[in-house]
Amino acid sequence: MPRRRDPSKQVARRSHRGCHRCRLHKIRCDEAKPHCGPCITRGAGVWSKSGTAGGRGGGTVSNKKKTAPPSVPDAAYWSQPTHVHPFGFLNTFISDFEGDESSSSSSSEETSGDDRKTAALALRRNINHLSRPVTYIKLDTNAESHLLRYYLDRICPMTVPCAKTESPFSALIFPFAVSSASPALMHALLGLAASHRARSDASYHPVALGYSAKVIRSLRLTLDSKPSVDIAASSEILVLMMLLCQLEIIAECDKRWVTHLRGARDLIRFRRQGLQSSDLARQAARQQSPWERIINFTERYFAFYDVMGRTACGEEPIFGNDFWSAQEDELDPWMGCSPRLVSVIGEITELSWRYHRLSSTTAEECWRDLERQRMRLVARLQQQPKLGSDGGDDGDDVIRTSVELKRVTVELYLHSALNDTTPATPVIRQGVKKILRLAAVLLRADVKAGLTWPLFMAACQLDPTEELEWTSEEPADEEAPRHARPFVLYALDKLSDSLSNVTRTRSVIEKVWKQREAASFLASDRQLSPSPRAFNDWARFVAPLCHNISLA
């Protein structure tokens, strides 16, 4: 029988605040901290309530000493944090994996609202304040003076790679607009500035539309009232069409700029035919001779935008390649290369277009002829003169880098459009790395002109199964990612305030990446062995999405 409790002693009640070991062995705990008496007597260590890893007070721990882990460098335990920016997110939908190319092509005009917001924020950061308005030209309102100053200080420097280089938009177009008796040219310049400002400030959107409507109305009245001879010889009409084309590109309208491009093609063709056959046209052209440089620039503008846009879609040319002189090696700062290099780009585009039209049953002689022309273009490209690298200031270095970037991109385009290559081909991988390295140099120099086309070409030739590292060293810009895809998105974000349609360019790049990745999961979509007559996947993944895209 159990012993009877002494009634004189206090009843011993079990406490729930004791340590874990005493409660486990049903021993009375004196609740001393950090070690209770029974645990000290038995040599067991006790954790205090605040030191328990699991959140329970009074946990015990063995008195055996744990061996410390071997000392290793900190890099084995810590890595650099990954900075995630808003421009680094890609939205993927089920339609991206359905494999329907027609639906992808039809939806190419859709733009992302997030991209527009990112571009607007970037542009708003770069515009701290407007400069003083232009006072030496009589304008209707003070707002127009501010817009004209914005055109001169913001728009014109972004049309050339180097700020020290004279922009044709300030050296040719602006004096021509000031000296013109018609207000349409000045309205076109103001509309150009308002359209660019509308990217960051929505209140300028109706202002830009108003100026654009005035210019189109004036152009229609001129075309309806003047005879065809005067229209063909007029340089003002051609400049108006060029400014309308640039305005639509800035406003991210993918169809209308091509409409102005086709209209300019017809006008230039009519002008050249009229000068050859009509004495009145030649007399009118002589009256326009002081502005001959403007006419040459506008014609080159339309032809250049046509060539660069067709490099992606491979469509039938609007301006023929005979427009470019194959022997002219003089550098054009506005184009970022020589007319001779542009003629090579045009020939590659036309050969690519002919490749699309050939079938497997085409005569062997046609294939051999195209192969000979391809080898001829390779030889011409290798003979391109390179600018010297010694001497010069920072402006010369920027121009030299810009020219080299164009040349390397043409090499990549040649292999992509005319060779049986894929993004995994070594020559393509090396070309992409060179392009991204040169683009990083120009971005550090705050260059906005001439980067859209190289970035687009490099981005569309990235292997979906590899995260390409374009540099083995730490980039000079700490924000610049080291891997190709994040860097492309980073660069496009930097160009969001340029004169290019960056939103459409990024949209096409995203769709190309998604379609390549989706096709990589299907064995039937892979080219297991190269074929000398098989066109590469550029025609499948890129060209259907690039209708009416502007890349110049």
Automatic annotation (TrEMBL):
Chief location: nucleus
rRNA processing found in the keyword field: no
Name of the featured protein: Zn(2)-C6 fungal-type domain-containing protein
Ribonucleoprotein recorded as keyword: no
Residue numbers spanned by region Disordered: 48-72
One Gene Ontology CC term in the entry: nucleus
GO BP annotations, alphabetical order: positive regulation of transcription by RNA polymerase II
GO molecular function, one term: zinc ion binding
Domain (Zn(2)-C6 fungal-type): residue spans on this chain: 18-43
Gene source species: Colletotrichum orbiculare (strain 104-T / ATCC 96160 / CBS 514.97 / LARS 414 / MAFF 240422)
Coiled-coil regions, chain positions: none
Keywords for the protein's UniProt record, in alphabetical order: Nucleus
One Pfam family it belongs to: Fungal_trans_2
Domain of life per record: Eukaryota
Compartment(s): Nucleus
